């Protein structure tokens, strides 16, 4: 990636964010008060570069910068060590990332208008979590296990008409289970459809969502107790291999069980909520 391409990529990713806003946030939190080398904006650019290159460690980020002259010239930074990156990462509080996200959400609302934004929010909501491992010695408040610490980012992303953007971000210590944040990520509005993985698997919550009419779909866990009520016929040329109406555990409301395969031929079983009119039959 040459210098011109790097500059274009940074412009594309930072333009919606607005560099002045990010610098103002950093100034308000005194993040760069005594910084001579790695200020917040440079740090964000470096991590955008690392994300695009799927760089998996601070050591690799340091190595890439130290060996890429075009990147050095664009950032105005000749070299950086793993320890410097680690210190900066530790010094940037999660609330600045939340503020950045809220700023971007507001820009979407200004661009689309409240009515159109609400329409977007009423479509597909993708819910997932990502765990970031940290040093236990430096972050004892967020123990992950006996050896490491960590934080967990629970994210709700909206998808509609080919447009994707983050709508909600909740940061917690890594240890609490994903399902503890499910209530905070669901939206009880007509037309909203939630998709989340097995980390958010919770019978009692599913029962509650069925009662309230909150639409969702998730993947089933292998050890889940299932009572089949009815097998539904499917076409032989359909990508759906099996469909059934089932009860999970002691749930009073039935769910659909759909079996299909992914692009690699692996079996996938998902559980969409049944339409209310079918539940009453």
List the helices and strands and how they pair.
Elements: H1 3-14, H2 19-28, H3 40-52, H4 58-66, H5 69-75, H6 82-91, H7 94-121, E1 124-135, E2 148-160, E3 163-173, H8 182-185, E4 193-196, H9 203-212, E5 215-219, E6 226-232, E7 242-248, E8 255-261, E9 267-272, H10 276-279
Parallel strand pairs: 1-4, 4-5
Antiparallel strand pairs: 1-2, 2-3, 5-9, 6-7, 7-8, 8-9
Helix pairs in contact: 1-5, 4-6
Number of helices: 10
Estimate percent helicity: 25-40%
Mean pLDDT: 82
Counting copies of identical and different chains, the oligomeric state is single chain
Biggest pleated sheet: 9 strands, mixed
Distance between the termini: 60 Å
Broad structural category: alpha+beta
Uncertain stretches of 5 or more adjacent residues: none
Global morphology: elongated
Tally the beta strands: 9
What key attributes describe this structure?
alpha+beta, nine-stranded mixed beta sheet, 3 domains, 281 residues
Please characterize this protein's 3D structure.
The structure is a single chain. By secondary structure, this protein is an alpha+beta fold. It folds into 3 domains: 3-92, no CATH class; 95-100 and 109-192, no CATH class; 201-281, no CATH class. Helices cover 38% and strands 26% of the residues. The protein is built from 10 helices and 9 strands. The protein has helices spanning 3-14, 19-28, 40-52, 58-66, 69-75, 82-91, 94-121, 182-185, 203-212, 276-279, and strands at residues 124-135, 148-160, 163-173, 193-196, 215-219, 226-232, 242-248, 255-261, 267-272. The protein has a 9-stranded mixed β-sheet with strand order 3-2-1-4-5-9-8-7-6. Helix 9 (203-212) links the parallel strand 4 (193-196) and strand 5. Helix 1 packs across helix 5 (69-75) and helix 4 (58-66) crosses helix 6 (82-91). The protein starts with a helix and ends with a helix.
């Amino acid at each position: 990636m040459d210098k011109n391409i790097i500059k274009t990529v940074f412009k594309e990713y930072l333009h919606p964010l607005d560099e002045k806003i990010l610098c103002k946030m950093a100034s308000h939190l005194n993040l760069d008060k005594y910084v001579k080398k790695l200020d917040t904006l440079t740090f964000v650019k470096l991590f955008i570069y690392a994300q695009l290159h799927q760089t998996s460690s601070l050591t690799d980020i340091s190595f890439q910068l130290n060996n890429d002259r075009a990147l050095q010239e664009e950032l105005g930074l000749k070299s950086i060590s793993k320890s410097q990156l680690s210190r900066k990462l530790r010094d940037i509080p999660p609330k600045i990332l939340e503020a950045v996200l809220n700023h971007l959400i507001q820009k979407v609302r200004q661009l689309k208008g409240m009515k159109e934004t609400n329409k977007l929010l009423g479509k597909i909501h993708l819910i997932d979590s990502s765990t970031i491992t940290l040093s236990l010695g430096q972050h004892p408040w967020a123990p992950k296990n006996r050896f490491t610490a960590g934080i967990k980012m629970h994210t709700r992303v909206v998808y509609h008409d080919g447009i994707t953007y983050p709508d909600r971000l909740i940061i917690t210590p890594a240890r609490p289970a994903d399902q503890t944040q499910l209530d905070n990520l669901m939206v009880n509005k007509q037309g909203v459809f939630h998709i989340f993985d097995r980390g958010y698997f919770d019978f009692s919550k599913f029962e509650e969502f069925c009662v309230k009419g909150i639409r969702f779909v998730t993947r089933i866990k292998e050890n889940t107790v299932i009572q089949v009520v009815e097998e539904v016929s499917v076409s032989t040329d359909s990508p759906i291999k099996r469909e059934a109406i089932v009860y999970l555990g002691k749930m009073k409301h039935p769910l659909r069980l759909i079996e299909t395969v992914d692009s690699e031929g692996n079996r996938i079983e998902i559980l969409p909520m049944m339409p209310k009119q079918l539940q009453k039959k």
